[in-house]
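Re-running the complex after MR caught last week's input typo. The corrected sequence lines follow. Everything else is unchanged.
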Amino acid sequence: MTEFVLRKAEFNPDHVFTCGQTFRFQKENGIWCGVARGNLLEAEADGSIVRLRISGQELAAETWRQYLDLDRPYAELFPEADPVLRRAMQSAPGLRVLNQEPVETLISFILSANNNIPRISGTVKALCEEAGTPFSVGGEVFYAFPDAAALAGMTETSLRTLGAGYRAPYILASAERAAGGDLDGVADMDTEDALKYLQTFPGVGPKVAACVALFAFGKREAFPVDTWMRRIVRNLYGFEGSPQAVQAFAEERFGSSAGIAQQYLFHYARRYLPAGS
DNA sequence: ACCCAGGATTCTC
DNA sequence: GAGAATCATGGG
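Corrected-run output:
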């Protein structure tokens, strides 16, 4: 078991787990609970501190520091943040961008296309219970996200039963490629190459590629543009254009940590910008 | 019945 | 290349 005691100002689970980067965490009885890297991760706020408890196979504390992105100085990332970004950051202190597993991120965000977050979460959970490796903590059973080979061994029918819909064949084909090692080189690519390469996976376009690059491969300049991002850029920055134009606007404005700015803005938009505006 | 959801793919011009 | 139609599925 690994434990962390952190200041809520540097890691706030209420922001980390609701800002849309992961679909596997739920709050139960005041405790955030989910599975990451085949371990149970629980986070509980206690005043101004947060206790993190990680149970399961024993992984090095350094691995978890990396997963939690604890060693990045968030307060120093945007020294000249504009008023919009500053407001978004001030509204979510302790938000951090996790470093998640590539296969889980790839498949989850293929599922996210033209879908809504509650339904994505439900399908991901069903997927884990169907094909993931179970492990038990304190007598309760949890499921790791299925590895690529397990996913590739599923049928289109079973994936549709779990709620994947028309994305089922994309998931199978992309899982097959991942099982063959096709994600292995992405970590060493620069952002531009990674984005281009990830889009060769079935079901992966510009937005999903940016999510995978950002959330699984540490490409912090990758800036996913979705309906929320177009809305916030239009309403709060007065910039309107194609997703590609919005991405260029964001990269120019936010620089090498644009993806982290994106998470603050996305989280802010979902909480404070009325839908349909 | 209609629209939307963290879009991607395919068809068409 | 840019723009429209199509793609399951559940909830408003």
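None of the earlier attempt is carried over here. Residues 58 and 107 of chain A are 25 Å apart (CA to CA). Strands of chain A lie at 2-7, 25-28, 31-36, 39-46, 49-56, 134-137, 140-143.
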